[in-house]
UniProtKB/TrEMBL annotation, chain B:
Residue ranges constituting the ABC transmembrane type-1 domain according to the UniProt record: 95-300
Compartments reported by the entry: Cell membrane
InterPro entries in alphabetical order: BPD_transp_1_N (IPR045621), MetI-like (IPR000515), MetI-like_sf (IPR035906)
Membrane topology: Multi-pass membrane protein
Main location (coarse class): membrane
Species for this entry: Prauserella cavernicola
Family (UniProt): Belongs to the binding-protein-dependent transport system permease family.
Cellular compartments per GO CC: plasma membrane
Keyword flag Membrane: yes
Single GO molecular function: dipeptide transmembrane transporter activity
Domain of life according to the entry: Bacteria
Protein name per UniProt: ABC transporter permease
Keyword Nucleus: no
Length: 501, 314
């Protein structure tokens, strides 16, 4: 018995030693930062896995799109659609047939050649195998024909401007049929980088793809490091643990970087509209006078200063300045409490009580406090309820529509189209907006421009929501790093243009 | 002996079972749907239903629980909804990081508390002893995460001597591993050390007034040798009890420290899993933590008998 116990103890000790020595082997490790060829970039949201076909969220495409996966087209730094794996393309007169001439000599990181067969496979796979909701944008595809190995033809059911745009997002990523067995852990694309190491809870290591068709990247190794905590992210740059902060999430900390000669600070725009949503399915918010009153009542300039250090843009509708049809509607409802009170009394709504159910994220909570106090001044009593984001907010506000007012950031590109869906949690139903959105998608680019401008204007007139501000894109980088993109227009943190002084 | 051991094992098994049930029940009533979180905005009801079926969330709760428990008993913690990887190996990996952190924190605490507590007791009527007591009082009042933030500001940001966070596995690079472990271990250990100092002081004070110390002193031994030869072992018993309790606190404190220093331990894994409603992973982690605490208690019990021969007879 004694001997047995002893053996067991020794076995446990041996196991424990192994666990301890190997601990965090797949979990964590600091980057070999400062190495001649390595670049370390700090992020806040870590991808839970590598499969953006079945896991939603911004983190996976941010890391992989354009860097590991490439599409036929990409969105360049100015927000224009540019060639990538397609060298050129033509559109038929009825605007339904796209003919893509493919770049030749392209290989996937597993060695397989990239041909029109892969285009067919990848686009059709969105409809058959993807599960994230974004995939519905590809429903308009009727079929993909392989004309020759370097010529793919995509036939749409009806004209769609948003389809080609969607092809610049993760939806357009090109996959190899033999490389999709374990998308969650082993991504295989044609991009300049491939995933060479994964340290869960810590970092992702990208290394140069030796089979890449283009110029070799300036940094053969890029370590994407993840810091949930904003202070930890800032400290990592200050203590030389990383070279770039991909996006500052604590705006108060920006001045310390601006004052430091080691760093460059780039401030641009994102696609992230911070929206005060009015539940249009509920009285009294179904009354446009009430929505306008609430919009007049909120002092957005002061709100931006209080919530996000004055960094960001006032937009006044669901369009960021990088979209082609942007027009500034931020002056439509100047801060005017008297006007708000007057509108409320016209609508017969005195002593209103509203529930403001917000995501429990720093920007939303600070914004909610300003909104509540501004509305209080015009006689609207607001109760703030922070909800655990994403789980609880998604369930109760987004799915069950159980809210009067809510605040959350909408990050998807060109998500103005959500106002064309009466089932969406806005509870906004305008036949005019739906018609305009449809026409914009199927019409010529000129028509699209005109129609989309009118949609944005209509939303503002209807006070369909209150667009509090547009999230800024604040990048801090060591001076020697060049080629960072100021405005965040695509889903990707594009590493391909990086260089060094 | 065998009977006592058997009873302890039975208590252990029962505790694990109850803990697993509580964790499962709590997560079942928590608002938020793992399928919804995985699919994100705009998920259609059909897609949600399909994903829920894929995750096995459409089965009765009892079936879900029994399946999970059955797997755990055979060492299979299931596959995460979110990472699509087996949970068991990840747990082991993360546990290693947390154990290093807790172990190093404990070591720091002991290295502080043993000498300082003894000095404070022996010199309790002198200014130096009072100063140590006051210092430990201050240490108790500082939360570990604040200590961590201050240490990072000084040693990582200002001086640049040590990394501000991150983890290197010891087999990969032992020097980097040690450098990365110093600040987290200090943050965790300083506060616990301050608490422990006060217990050591009290224990040594009690021992000092015992007859056998007076006898030793009267034989001509100086205060410290008398204490070391006759008193420390006796003082160790109450200290050990506190140590056992503190280890459990350290495991929980490590959750916060892991966040501050971006360490991929159980704590950060737990926070991520809760946010993503990755229920299977949460259940697995909590179970591991419960078992760890129970094992610590078990070891402390065993150590009593090593330290105090009188306990062996009973």
């Amino acid at each position: 018995m004694q001997a047995l116990l002893w053996m067991r103890a020794r076995w446990i000790a041996a196991t424990l030693t192994t666990v301890l020595l190997l601990s965090g082997c797949s979990a964590g490790s600091t980057a070999t930062v400062g190495g001649e060829d390595a670049l370390a970039v700090g992020f806040t949201a870590e991808p839970q896995n590598f499969d953006f076909t079945s896991t939603d969220g911004a983190a996976i495409p941010q890391a992989l799109l354009y860097n590991v996966y490439e599409g036929l087209v990409k969105l360049d730094a100015n927000g224009e659609i540019a060639p990538l794996l397609a060298e050129s393309w033509t559109l038929s007169d009825d605007r339904t047939v796209y003919d893509f001439r493919l770049r030749t000599g392209v290989r996937f990181s597993n060695g397989a050649p990239f041909t029109a067969e892969d285009v067919k496979f990848s686009i059709e796979r969105v409809q058959t195998d993807w599960t994230i909701s974004l995939k519905s944008t590809m429903d308009v595809v009727d079929r993909v024909d392989v004309v020759s190995p370097s010529h793919a033809r995509v036939v749409l059911r009806e004209p769609s401007n948003s389809w080609l745009f969607a092809m610049t997002t993760r939806l357009g990523a090109m996959f190899d049929p033999s490389g999709v067995d374990d998308l969650a852990n082993r991504p295989i694309g044609t991009g300049p980088y491939q995933v060479s190491d994964r340290r869960r809870g810590d970092s992702i290591v990208l290394s140069a793809n030796s089979r890449y068709w283009g110029a070799r990247p300036a940094y053969p190794t890029v370590v994407l490091k993840y810091y949930r905590d904003a202070t930890a992210l800032n400290n990592a740059l200050l203590s030389n643990g990383i070279d770039v902060i991909s996006g500052v999430t604590a705006p108060d900390s920006v001045p310390q970087f601006e004052a430091d000669t080691r760093f460059d600070v780039l401030q641009g725009t994102t696609n992230g509209e911070v929206v005060l949503a009015f539940n249009g399915n509920r009285a009294p918010l179904d009354d446009v006078r009430v929505r306008r009153a609430l919009t007049y009542a909120v002092d957005r300039e002061a709100l931006l200063a209080a919530a996000w250090g004055g960094r960001g843009n006032l937009i006044g509708s669901m369009v960021p300045p990088t979209d082609p049809w942007f027009e500034d509607h931020s002056g439509a409802y100047p801060h005017d409490p008297e006007r708000a009170k007057q509108l409320l009394s016209e609508a017969g709504q005195q002593n209103l009580n509203l529930r403001l159910r917000v995501a429990n994220l720093p920007y939303a909570i600070s914004a909610a406090q300003v909104v509540a106090s501004d509305l209080d001044r015009v006689g609207v009593n607001v109760t703030i309820e922070p909800l655990d984001f994403p789980a609880v907010w998604l369930q109760q506000v987004f799915t069950d529509h159980d809210y009067d007012l809510s605040i959350v950031q909408h990050v998807e590109p060109r998500d103005i189209t959500t106002f064309g869906d009466p089932e969406y949690y806005w509870g906004y139903d305008s036949p005019r907006v739906r018609e305009l959105l449809d026409r914009a998608d199927t019409g010529t680019p000129e028509q699209q421009l005109a129609d989309m401008r009118e949609v944005a204007k209509t939303l503002s007139d209807d006070a369909a929501a209150d667009w509090l501000f547009l999230f800024p894109n604040i990048i801090v980088a060591k001076k020697e790093v060049t080629g960072l993109v100021r405005n965040q227009v695509s889903e990707s943190f594009d590493l391909t243009g990086l260089g060094r002084r | 002996m065998a009977l006592a051991l058997g009873r302890k094992v039975l208590v252990l098994v029962a505790s694990v079972f109850v803990a697993s049930l509580v964790v499962f029940a709590f997560l079942a009533v928590l608002p938020g749907d793992p399928a919804q979180v995985a699919l994100g905005l705009n998920a259609t009801p059909e897609l949600l239903a399909r994903t829920r079926a894929e995750f096995g969330l459409d089965r009765p709760l009892v079936t879900q629980y029994l399946d999970w428990m059955g797997g755990v008993l055979t060492g299979d913690f299931g596959t995460s909804y979110v990472t699509r990887e087996a949970i068991g190996p990840q747990l082991l990996d993360r546990l290693g990081v947390t154990l290093w952190l807790v172990g190093a924190g404990m070591l720091v605490a002991l290295l502080i508390a043993m000498p300082l507590g003894t000095i404070a007791a022996v010199r309790h009527r002198k200014p130096s002893g009072a100063a140590v007591s006051a210092l430990s009082q201050l240490g108790v009042a500082v939360p570990a995460f604040l200590a961590g933030i201050i240490l990072v500001q000084i040693f990582a940001v200002r001086l640049g001597w040590l990394p501000s966070g991150g983890w290197t596995p010891p087999v990969r690079d032992p020097v980097e591993w040690l450098r990365g472990l110093i600040l987290p271990a200090l943050s965790l250990g300083l506060v616990q050390g301050a608490v422990l100092t006060r217990y050591v002081r009290t224990a040594v004070l009690d021992v000092q007034s015992e007859d056998y110390i007076r006898t030793a002193r009267s034989k001509g031994l100086r205060p410290y040798p008398a204490l070391v030869r006759h008193g420390l072992r006796n003082a160790a018993v109450p200290v050990l009890t506190v140590l056992g309790l503190q280890l459990a606190t350290l495991l929980v404190g490590a959750v916060v420290i892991e966040r501050v220093f971006v360490l991929p331990g159980l704590g950060s894994m737990l926070l991520d899993a809760v946010a993503a409603r990755d229920l299977l992973t949460v259940q697995g982690i909590v179970l591991v933590l419960v078992v760890a605490v129970l094992i610590v208690n078990f070891v402390v019990d065993a150590l009593y008998t090593v330290l105090d021969p009188r306990l062996r007879r009973s």
